[in-house]
Amino acid sequence: MAWQQFSVLRKSCRFPDRCPVCLCVGPDRALFIESVSGHFSGFYLVAKSYRHLRVAVPFCKSCTRRIIRRSRWGTACLFASFFACAGLALWLDLSGLSAGVLTVLICGPIMWWFQSRGSMLRIDDYDDERMTISIKHSAYADLFRNLNMETLEK
Ligand SMILES: [Zn+2]
Prior knowledge:
binds zinc ion, alpha+beta, two-stranded antiparallel sheet, 3-stranded antiparallel beta sheet, 40% helix
């Protein structure tokens, strides 16, 4: 399965009456999908803040459960690996830069694995009017294209 990308109007975007993961008819749950890229929203003392677009997408009950469970496991594994890196850095008496590199090398793939695995739909980018959605399942992508035909931008 290859990702297919669509640019649609945010106001009128509609999702098929199918679960984007298992394609069962009549999904009865809504999961909020957050955009991959965020837009700058302000400075807070020493950090910048970014706002992400969140869109409610219908999923079936069992896929919703699986996605939430995976997300919780991902968060737990990320925290565990972060503290393991901090402990290892202290034990090996690493400098700040080395500890940072070690953390990125270990936590980065874990984050990537939990975020990409099983993901069937993502919002790549957005502006005030449009959003760019990528869909992995080709049958769901066809349904989405047909449903949003009038507002699609090539
Ligand atoms: Zn499903």
